[in-house]
Amino acid sequence: MELAGSYRIPAPREKIWAALNDPEILGSCIPGCESIEKVSDTDFTATVRAKVGPVNARFSGKVRLVDLQPPESYRIVGEGSGGVAGFAKGDAKVTLVAETTTATTLSYVVDAQVGGKLVQIGSRLIESTARKMADDFFGKFCEQVGGEPAEAVPVESEPPTEAASAAWPAWLPWAAAVAALAVALAALA
Amino acid sequence: MTKADGIGASVKRREDFRFLTGRGTYTDDIDRPGQTHAHILRSPFAHARVKSIDVAAATAAPGVVAVFTGADMAADGVKGLPCGWLIHNKDGSPMNEPAHPPIVIDKVLHVGDQIAVVIAESRAQARDAAELIEVDYEEMPAVVDAVAAQAPNAPQVHGDAPGNLCYDWHLGDQAATDAAFARAAHVTKLDLVNNRLVANAMEPRAAIGEFDRATDEYTLITTSQNPHVIRLLMGAFVLGIPEHKLRVVAPDVGGGFGSKIYHYAEEAIVTWAARKVGRPVKWTADRSESFLSDAQGRDHSTHAELALNQDGTFLGLRVSTVANLGAYLSTFATSIPTYLYATLLAGQYTTPAIYCEVKAVFTNTVPVDAYRGAGRPEACYLIERLVDNAARELGIDRVELRRRNMVPASAMPYQTPVALQYDSGDFHRNLDLALPMIDYDGFPARRAEAAQRGKLRGIGFSTYIEACGIAPSNVAGALGARAGLYESAEVRFHPTGSVTLFTGSHSHGQGHETTFAQLVADRFGIPVDSVEIVHGDTSKVPFGMGTYGSRSLAVGGSAIARAMDKVETKAKKIAAHMLEASEADIEVKDGSFTVAGTDKSLTIGEIALSAYVPHKFPLEELEPGLDEQAFYDPKNFTFPNGCQVCEIEIDPETGVSEIVKFVCADDFGRVVNPMIVEGQVHGGLVQGIGQALMENCVYDARSGQLVTGTYNDYCMPRADDLPFFAVKYHEEALCTHNPLGVKGCGEAGTIGAAAAVMNAVVDALSALGVHHLEMPATPQAVWQAIRAARPSQAA
Question: What is the set of domains in chain B, with CATH numbers?
């Protein structure tokens, strides 16, 4: 499954790239971020408190940046564990396209899996939570980097790759959750 | 005719006062002195290797008494959970029986699999400490669908079950069936899925283990439908505790529906751990755990073909089913898609040739076992869906096609081509009763009227027969059963004439405390309030196989009847002595023992007093006391049967189905308490309707996560989803081989209902060209089917 989003940020691409690699900025933008630490140039750890429906848990995440193509794109591979609340893992491809010298479009595509109680109890809420976390993150990020709010660019999300199950497309919330966590984690990067 | 408290009277349920006023004693209501609390850490992964488990931090956490892993149990000699029915493959070889440890050793096989148990002073402390256990998992690809699990490159659930196959089994005459198809004028084919269900008993499972150091005796209090079976399985196979040192108690139990038949890991864990920590250990599942650890039901993928003559005569039935057993073999899992399924494929019809093959497959899902109906709803659903489609294809009225093929009452006893011999049944009479109840003749007008309101109206029939009271034991044993299938009873008259009745069956909603008391009241002319029913405790009841498969009255009730026979025989001898008459001259009626042709008479109470105060008693001939025990092993299954009709109205704009009318006409043999029987039918119908329209247990195909793990996502039927049911029964075809003439009613509603509902849904949509729809027919699924059938109008 995939979840995608796109934001137009009023800042030059290099500045955004630098911010995306600054733990301090990321930490202040990730909703519920309690700590963030740069372990190496490409590895980060973070602790994020997230609430998905009735599941309220502290997620410890490890993130690695791969396929780095500064300042255009990278891929974030990460996993977060919330103990008995569950886990999330996946990867997110983040791309920066310079629209003008002062405006950049940031796009992400997340492929993720979520498991444990998070799915069992909160599955219906994961997508909306993920979207909100992403919006919150980019809202703050843009304020910090560009000085004004980001503008979400409508993105056609990928159609479901599997036939919809009789109940509901199971992949959807998981994808979304990743978005949240991957974006959060991505942010860590 | 019917006595106020006797057979046929709708005596109000005596147990309801305590249940409705909150005075029931369920396992979780019980607290033992010094009790500790267990929390079980469960796998968040569907399939993963467990590389290491670090319990150090958890062990040191506040309030923690001990933390145990699978390795601890294995080191202590604890064995795996046994499977109770051995199935043989087509080639005669035995099925694959992979290990089933109570706590995993090195690999988790489904989300919810047991990793470790934390025992602490409080439930909260145990739960908190479990969070500190560090497990290093190496995740592996998972497979959740039984058909997908058979693919050559599918993830392998067990190392010793190649191709994820448990068994490849068959029943019936393949050559005769193929020949029938070769000469058929018409063949109706259908692929269908019988969707997986979660049992959802109102009371979650719970267990308390206790060990007495002074006597070396263990006690397990557990939410079980069959405590003696648990004692046998856990004692003999898992923990190695002899029966005389192990007491199993199943107190009030809040619903089972099959899911509380089985021996579960948690029972073994708390019993074993109680000795390790030297204190009682209590575990109670929360609802999330129930979703992840209670055995689930159904989950068949089937291809079925019915061969017919031009006039609609059934010539042959060919069925190929893939059954999902989940990750491990639950206690009776293997018997469900075989001897409780394929043997029922004749249904109510004279189909002369039937062949069924079943592949049972392991997947990374919660184990599957019997759920109300167990195999028989799956059989009924496929037969009745086929019959409806055949009727439509041949242009024959559905009722007429059924009637043409029904086994007539005159053909009883009837030997089916799939092993069973029906002893009795009058299937036409069921239809005769049901048709006026639903006003079948008026249906076209109702459909036309609904069409004027823009609604699609359909009617669906289901005729069902089930095999209840599995037996006899020697036949079941020859087919692979590893247990007996009899039942025991003890009727103990007390000196003042009241009775304690011990039964090996178990009541968890069925109303035994009322129905069984009625049997005694009817026989001996004493009020039901003078009869106490004792069940659910291996230290009190002689033995028992428990309650499942609608067996309590047919088998347990028959054992009670036999024990009462013995009481009566002895009482007659005592009466003859007391009345100074010949035993042959004593007439027994309603508990009075009278010398024929005289007014010399004794009540059973007077005889009981004499039995315990034997001053005027034939001591040289009889022992004192009036307390008799019987074991009853049935000669055959019983065959409840009936006809259900569902009328449904679909709103094509929303896809919402409304059941406007639902009627049943059943044959349960002799009915002891009509009110309780009707209640059983109602409950059964709701579970069948739930499967057809709402309930569906879904795992994510890629990750194996259970995505319908709460009532947000797993839709249970509610009162406002349901109509008022009209239920009738007849007693014109009593069971011929048990002393009460009873057949059983517990599962009937569920067995027929899904087929009746889905036939009605498909009937409503058939004008659009829809000929099949998978369950559950949710509004979304129905709406999509309508839209697919007529895209131009939906646009």
Answer: 16-22+486-632 (3.30.365.10), 31-131+202-255+260-293 (3.90.1170.50), 300-470+636-794 (3.30.365.10)
